[in-house]
Amino acid sequence: MQIQKNISLKPYNTFAVNAKAKYFSTFSSVNELEELLKTTNDKRRTINNKLILGGGSNILFTKDFDGLVLKNELKGIELIKEDENHYYVKAAAGENWHEFVMHCIKHNYAGVENLSLIPGNVGASPMQNIGAYGAEIKEVFEQLEAYHVHDNKIITFSANDCEFGYRESVFKRKYKDQFVILNVTFRLRKKPVFNASYGQVKQELEKMGVKKLSIQAISQAVINIRTSKLPDPKVIGNAGSFFKNPEINSHEFHELKRIYPGIVGYPLTNNKTKLAAAWLIEQCGPRDAVSWKGYREGDAGCHVKQPLVLVNYGNAKGEEIYKLSEKIKDSVYKNFGVTLEREVNII
Ligand SMILES: Cc1cc2nc3c(=O)[nH]c(=O)nc-3n(C[C@H](O)[C@H](O)[C@H](O)COP(=O)(O)OP(=O)(O)OC[C@H]3O[C@@H](n4cnc5c(N)ncnc54)[C@H](O)[C@@H]3O)c2cc1C
Does residue 241 carry a catalytic annotation? Predict the structure, then answer.
């Protein structure tokens, strides 16, 4: 456990933005974390600003970080109990999410197969209730343990305590920067309930010639779709969807649909409709281009295939990517009266 100074964060964020951390340290046990917090909360050496970092796949550094970046490297996956219908599996926060999913598939623990290949670590998965292809972690979440950075206490959170929403939880809002998630326990099914209703997954399973559904087949279908559709951060820097899909009242949606018959929306239960942000972004653009899709300003851009994903073609600064996101947001508002909200954490 060592605190390093002036460390480039480029290898630690999937946007590959070259911001610096004033202080940087890793921790691979709760004791190490405790020590680090004690040292840096010490009156003679207070470092107020602290950032817990997982895989850096949902973060945009818009400037150097004037504080301590704590990289979580807690490891371990454990089957802690089972009952008639479920396995309860506890994974440490520093485990890679996709490797955890692969572990579950190998052991026939069902429920996370639709969430294959999401980058990042287990510890960040409850932060925004990660979701994809018709599934969210809240459906398999049992509890988590988190360390309070000021009280030095470990607190257990149930699903209710986490207040999960669409890409939301208490950790992104009222408890922001207050807790270090140490581990997450998942409740996984012994008998799978397959979720292949999502159009693209269905089509991919047909293409694969799958006759009998299995969690392995669904996982592979999701992996195939994701690799063909989303830019690989190892090739082009990005953090996945930059914006959330906005939710609006259904009557507003019908009004927009009258004016823009092609608008894409999915009805929700509470008289709301979720709009496809990608469609909105694709329909408008800057003055010198028809659409934001494929638009580039220096090394900051909007991906050619997936306009919801902002990219760094090489040496874009975080600030440049952020400014581009502001322009996109303004333009969607001007055209449709809809406010886009960022999914990515801006630092
Ligand atoms: C190509 C690509 C595709 C993606 N697809 C999806 C998708 O389909 N669905 C989806 O939901 N997301 C998706 N994402 C976003 C991202 O992968 C997830 O949000 C992921 O959970 C982030 O994990 P991380 O470890 O990289 O978090 P980081 O980026 O390191 O951190 C994200 C936030 O969580 C906080 N944090 C991280 N770990 C902890 C911890 N242990 N305790 C407390 N706070 C912590 C950080 O401070 C930060 O605020 C995608 C990203 C990419 C690059």
Answer: yes
